[in-house]
Write a structure and sequence with these properties.
Blueprint (H helix, E strand, L loop, with lengths): L6 E2 L2 E2 L1 H7 L3 H4 L5 E6 L5 E7 L3 H16 L2 E6 L2 E6 L3 H13 L18
Length: 119
């Protein structure tokens, strides 16, 4: 942890808690991801809230996006079904990581970053 500069005076920095901690939202309330599917800009159809440390949030958010929110092309190779997202998985992961990394964790305020995709 010291090599990663995640300790100060023997105590964990906020970055260490957010990145690797358990019960992260107990200490950093705004460290969560909220996503939704909208019919119109103000009319929400579904909502999902992802909590946990950042590593867990990335994996869970990508899983939810892939299974619940994004369209995919379906093809079959023999008896095996293949789903191909309309957006490249690597691009989704990169966009999500950029949003998480550049988010403000210090101030207790509601982030209003919008990451919008249209079908």
């Amino acid at each position: 942890m010291e090599r990663l500069n995640l300790l100060v005076g023997g105590r964990f920095k906020r970055a260490a808690v957010v990145l690797l901690g358990k019960n992260v939202q107990k200490y950093v309330l705004q460290a969560r991801i909220k996503m939704g599917k909208f019919l119109f800009e103000t009319e929400r159809l579904t909502t999902a809230i992802v909590e946990g440390n950042l590593i867990q949030q990335v994996d869970r958010t990508l899983d939810i996006l892939r299974t619940k929110y994004l369209l995919s092309y379906i093809s079959y190779e023999g008896i095996h079904r293949r789903d191909k997202l309309i957006y490249p998985y690597e691009a989704l992961r990169e966009a999500l990581l950029n949003a998480i990394i550049h988010r403000e964790y210090f101030f207790l305020l509601r982030s209003r970053y919008k990451f919008m995709m249209t079908n």
